Every structure is written in structure tokens, then in C-alpha cells.
Amino acid sequence: MKNKILQITRLNLEYICVYLIYKLVSVLPTPFVSFLGGSIFKFIGPYTKTHRIVKRNYMQIFPSASKKQILKQSKLNWFNTGKTFLELFILPKIISANNKITINGLEYIKDVQNNNEQVIFIGIHESNWEILLPTIDKIGISVGGIYRHINNPYIDKLILKIRKKSIISNKSFYTPKGKQSAKEIIDGIKKGLSVVLLIDQKDSAGEIVPFFNIPTKTQIGFLKLAKKYNMKIIPVHNIRNKDNNFTIQFYPPLEKFSKELSDIDVMKKIHGIIEEWIKECPSNYFLQHNRFR
Predict the structure, then answer these.
(1) What is the 3-state secondary structure (H, E, C) of 83-118?
(2) 144-163 pLDDT tens trace
(3) What's the chain's average pLDDT?
(4) Of 3, 20, 238, 287, which is the most buried if we count CB atoms within 10 A?
């Protein structure tokens, strides 16, 4: 009983702290929120255990990098992660701004916008990955997406509320990762919605696929969905610009792969695409995740 009370007290104290941060940054200018979050994480991050993961991941991507490069890029990486963390609290403000997000490659999704064609948008944890789903929703495409729930249920509820405020359509939705998400994503597809997925995280139940030439557990379930429901796969590159604005770049749909190609072979080709994105700006990629396992 005592442990239960202590747990509830801890969860509530955590929630109060996060809620106060949320209320504070809500009244601050967007550029300052980004700078503040980045500066805090850039200062604290190198002193955490996670910093070892950041440096190790960077060395996996750039094996010949010097110690100086690793130190510099690791700090810049924390800077982007901190920006993304605090920007989550003002996500609706970022999405609703008229000059914050530039969209390129709209010609590749005309059929999706005009003919309600269903597709699977694939992206990775780069730049501020939280803007991807609401940006696609804002241009008139109803989508479902998966998020990783937070262990504190009160904070999780608050963050989900913020995410939902950033979407316009009453059809677009978020679903927590797990058995529930698989069911809700399929239900969404059956109702005519598209899907947006971040495909770069380790999947303990996935297949072994080379990622930067390292055998890595990789999610391939979305390939089976694409085949079953005859959905095109459209890569989406999310770029944080120097002025803290963003560019969303839609790519041409991936060509239909021959039946002779296995899902692993297809995933190797997709990894080739996202590896180029990461190498283009490694400081904007989420290196804090223990991906190479």
C-alpha cells in the first residue's frame, strides 16, 4: 500500500513538473523555445549515460570520424534533440504557422490529395519528427500514425492531447505502439485512410537487415500492409533548416518491386534511401536510440 502511494505521488509530481514546463513554453516565442530546449540538452546530454550511445551510433555511421568530429556532432545532436523535445509542447503553434514549414514534392502526391488514393508515407526520426503527421494532415490527407507511449500515464495523456490539437481532420489519428496500434492502423486503412510510419527504430520482433552495413533488427510489417492493400510507399524527408524552419520533401512513390524480391531485399533498398538522409545531416538524426542491435 505504501509503495502504491509513493508511486502515485511520484507520477503526480512528474506530471506537475511537465505541465508547468508546458504552460511556460506555451507563452514563449517559438524560436526561443527551440533555442532553450537545444541549449539545455546540449549542456546536460554529454553528462548522461545516453551520451555513450550517441557517440557509438555516430561511429557506426562514420567509422573513420575523428574524436573531434564525434565530439562536435554529438553536441549538435543533443541540440536538435532538445529542440524537438521542447517544440513538442508547442506543436499546434508550429503546424498552424504559415511560414514555418515548406513542402516540396507535392507533384508526387497529387493522386493522394485529389483522388483519395491510399499510401504509406515512410520517414525517420530526424529534424522534428513530430511535425510529420500533422503536416500531412494539414494538406488534406487523412492519416493514422503510431507513437510510443510515455510510462507516466498523466504525462502521456497530456502529450497525446497536444498532438491531437495539431491535427485538423477528425479522421486522422494517433495510436500507441503495440497490439492496439496494429488493429487501429488496419481499421484506418479499411476506412480509406493513409498511414505515416517512422521506420528506423529497432524492432525486437523484426527481421535482420543491414543498416549502414550492420545486421540490425528491422520492422518490415509495413511492406506486408502495402502488398495486401495495394498501397504505394512514399518516402518523406524531414529537414530542419538553419533558421529553425522545416522542409518536408516528398519523394516519388517507390516502384513496385518484383515478386522475386523478398521483404528483406526491399528493405535493403529503403535503408539505402534513409542512410543518405542521415549522412546528409547526422546531427539532426535521433542518435539517442540504441539502433544497431
Answers:
(1) HHHHHHHHHHHHHHCCCCEEEECHHHHHHHHHHCCC
(2) 999 999 999 999 999 999 99
(3) 94
(4) 287
Q: What are phi and psi of 248, to 5 degrees?
A: -105, 120
CB 77 within 8 A of CB 283: yes
Which three cell numbers, joined as nine digits, stand for 2? Answer: 505504501
* Helix ranges (DSSP H) in the chain: 2-26, 30-44, 50-61, 67-87, 91-96, 110-115, 132-138, 153-165, 179-190, 221-228, 263-280
Q: Which three cell numbers stand for residue 280?
A: 546528409
C-alpha cell recorded at residue 281: 545531416
Q: Are 108 and 251 in contact (CB under 8 A)?
A: yes
Is 121:136 a contact under the CB 8 Å cutoff? Answer: yes
Cell of 144: 493514422
For 180-233, write each residue's pLDDT tens digit.
899 999 999 999 999 999 999 888 888 999 999 999 999 999 999 999 999 999
How many CA atoms lie within 13 Å of 11's alpha carbon, on the beta-carbon side? Answer: 14
